[in-house]
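[job 0417] fold request received: RAD50-interacting protein 1
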Amino acid sequence: MSSSTFQSPSEDGNFTDDVVALVQKEIGGDLKSLKKVSGLLEQLTLENKQLEEQVLTVSSSVPLRVSAALSTAEESRVKLESLLEKERLLSNTLQQHLQGAQVWADSIGQVLAQLDTLERHMKYLQCLARIEELSDSIQQYLMTNSMWDAVSAIDRMASLDMGLWESGCSHLQAFLRETLCFWHKILKDKLASDFEEVLTQFHWPFISPPTQTLSPPANVQELNSQLELLVSQLLSLQTSDDLISEKRETPSRPGQSQTPPLSLPIQIMLLPLSKRFRYHFTGNRQTNNLSKPEWFLTQVLIWMGNSSNFMDEKIQPILDRAGAKVNVELCRGLLTLAQEKLAQDTPLLLYDDALFCHLVDEVLQFEKELRSTHSYPRAYPGVLHILLEETVFQKWLSVERKMAVEKVDAMLSAEGAWSSQYKDITDVDELKAPDCAETFMTLLLVITERYRALPCPRAQLSFLALQKELVDDFRIRLTQVMKEESRQPLSPRYCAILNAANYISTVLSDWGDNVFFLQLQQAAVSVGEEILGPLGATETGRLASLEGSLFEALLALLERLRGDMLGRLLDAVMRDVKEKAQPYCKDRWISLPSQSDQATMSLSSSACPMMLCLRDHLLQLQQMLCLPLFQMFWQGLAERLNSFIYGDLILYNHFNEGGAAQLQYDMTRNLFPLFGHYCKRPENFFKHVKEACIILTLKVGPALLLCDMLKQSEEEEGILNHQQPSPESALNELGVYKLAPSDVQILLNLRSAWLNQAHC
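[job 0417] inference complete; emitting structure tokens
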């Protein structure tokens, strides 16, 4: 037994219980186990002896360790006290040193502050001296007519001015700016005077179109050299001119990109034109007429055209050689005159719809001429941004809506609103669109052309929303007129309404694939909800993937209207046909003479009214409906006729051999050919009738065999028999594909009395 078997006394001191538990475990209730007592006693005695030895060993070593720890702690305390004393002495010494050095530090700080002040004063004086030096240099250069040196000095002075922007020397900045302005004005005036003199010899400005009668100057070579020299020198003054004028890039308006300031030579060239413009189009001049914006817009375009050759041949090459990144500069300057005039006049016209509309028309025409005729880059703003100011733009939308609604009212109430102007020209009038629908879509197209050039997608989407609103309003009007005409669905006006709905739907479908509207579709995905309303995740996804179109909802509504009107038209025709077909349906098919008893077969007399009715309606509607609608109509009519003849004539009668032959003749030689004008195989649209005729005209033998096979197949239904052909394959061999075997059995039972004995 190991020593681990002995359990130490529990924490409550109940040693007796532990001894009892040990004895119970080792000896138990078996008296034979008492022999283990001696061994247990020896083991416990040995363990007790070992424990006593361990206690004695520990008791002797603990005092030595405690003593050593106390000794170490005492040494550490002494060292710490020594270090604290040294720290106190050093701190006192350092404090005394700092107090003594503070006097020197204060003295040195005063000297450094004086040095800093002197340095700033020196730099201030150096800057003043530099300004005086540059000023004297410019004066000397001007006196000696050294223009390039004077321009370079002005440029250096402008660089110095820009270098002082962040300094706090306001008086120095003001002095430098005044000096710069003084010399810049003198130099600019001198160069501008010389430049204007040279331009005058080139007959600038070209108020009227240049003619060949103006002989070139005798000293043209010298003038060209002077022109290039002066333009180059003026370009070198550009930095200081922009600095003095503080020309910054103006904040952009909706759809307007930022543009740099005009170059100095162009500014000088614009002066005489600007004077003329303000003379004629400001103040109380008769030419300053709010109702005639085309006067000043046209004048600007004329000046652009008159000056283009001179600019391309004389000025632009010099600008290119000087490395100036400018283009169509004069056009940009002249355009500024028009922009300022429009910004001034437009707010005055907001309360006069007629004048405002005229202004918009002229602005759009001006923009078109500017971009096409004068090749003005689209990167530069034209004049359309004037119309995109919020107040002006909302007025534009309001006027467009008002004018469009008035035009729609007028076109719908016009005398020839529901007739086509191309009705006598077959090749042109494929869609047979009435005048009101064609005029309406032309109106929408005009609106599209008006806003197509707008540089802002949001504005374009606003106009698109207006167009969709107008289309939906026109659809509602068509529906209202259709309901008025629904009592006479075969009238020309009803068909014209149907053609109108189809025409609008066709045009909108084409627009959905147009590049311009596809671009608008992409814009609508990002900003369209603000203008077109919530689109929804599904619609947004369809628009983004180009699966749908911007006109999808409108097309669905128009399709519903078209389907409803076609249904009403078919109902009306079928009512007429059914009325005329009643005698034909009630004919005695079971007692008609056989084919062998007749010399020649002819159309049943009772079928003539029905056939004539069908023919007349088909011819009439072919003339009144456009081709796509007429195709839908005759196919729908054929489908309904097929169901009617099969259900109301064939299944409600019994046929002898003569009756079946007569029915087949009436169908294949008369009814089907009526539709043969519109397709190659009209019988494919009458499959029930065609196959019923096949079954009814079967010879007696094949009919009996077919009847037996169908009976047997019905009896053995569910039992596989690979040797017996299926009823479907047997019917297919006869040319029957549409009718089910049960339908064929019904038809066989409609044959005359000779087959009733073998009732199928």
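[job 0417] notes: The first helix runs from residue 15 to 26. The chain is about 70% helix and 0% strand.
[job 0417] exit 0
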